[in-house]
Write a structure and sequence with these properties.
433 residues; mainly alpha; 3 domains; 16 helices; globular; disordered N terminus; disordered C terminus
Length: 433
Amino acid sequence: MLKMIGQSKSTTLLFVTLLMAMGLQLTLHASANQFLFDMDEIKDPGSLAVKLEDTRAPVSQLLASQLSEDIQWLLVGYDGASDPSPKLQEALLAELNRLLQAGSLYDAQVFADIELSEGTQALIAQNPKDGEALVRLNRSLLAAAYPYELASLSEQQDSEDSRGIAACRENLRLIKLAREKYRIANADADPQWLSELSPEYLEKKVLLCPADATAGDPGFFLIEDAVDPTLPCSYLYEMCPCKKADQETMRMQEGDMTPIVRCEHHRLNLSVSGKLYRNGPERTIYNSNKTAFSALSDFLRDLRAEHGENFLKTQMVRKEIKAATETLVLKHLPKMLNRMEISILEQAKPELEAQLGKGILETQMGMGILQQVTVQVRDQIKEQLQSQLEAQLGAEFLKTEEGQDIRQQLSVLFPEAPVQLGNSKVRVDFRKK
């Protein structure tokens, strides 16, 4: 009898221990679940979908490599401008929550340029492998990487729709459609101003962002010389006369995701390819609307405002211009040249295969043709970059000692072909690339 009582106590103790363990696991699971995303916490699913499909940003590249094949197909099929389908939104939610629990998303190199809070850095130091801490870490990392798309754990949710973002997205979608119709009617040329789209292709009210309290009057968000002269317009148009050259250069660097219309009220961009996405911490990819030449232009404009039109006659100012040119432009030219060359060649390859046959580029003849095209593209890009630099600095400056030194530095950067500043001959129309 005593033996049976002892066995009964042992069984009861084991049962209680199992219940306690199960209860602890359920508590931990529930605790971790409270940090997962819900649908309301995906603030801008359209922008998130665009960024996950556009893998130029290191963090998007990291996430895209871990996405399931099903959602990758959904992302490819999304037009980037309309509201994402319920199926895509549900897939985004499921994938995000799976990634939160699958393992640490932290990579020091990927998140090097993204500002992380002290709390997030403390979680990184803990290096959690699972449970609540892992989910909290990954949730904090994603919110830091996509602040306009995903809600952070501490964020108080207010309705962005009440500030007009839904209506602003619709405005930009309509501007996209109007631009496409305009280009069809005008041999692929863009309008000089968005007001040229109205009234034939667009109602003028579409040019006003609901969050713009000035109703399109020039103000904080619109830069000098970029204000539409015809109609009130809340949006910054990257193809207006004062920005067009820089925008075309940027497009050769960044491709079809380069913004063409921006809403600074909502940090919302319409890209050349017609996709909508928000700004983000990946500054050089999603935020900046300045190329090296644009930054130099702003610097020169400020100098003129400070020193007057005779600033070139002052040696001290000429030295400042030379130093700024070296820092803002010359230092970046080799990288710009390489990125532009790669971008154009990637677009040229399908055209060559279409003309000469699929697989031709893998043959010796095809490699020779591609090499010839590469040389031509490189020379043409050099001419364009050099011509644009001359336009920024001016012929008078280039005759000075400082200007001659800039010429010499260009000849070192571009040794394969002689520097011919002022040569406007361009054999390829980059605007159609």
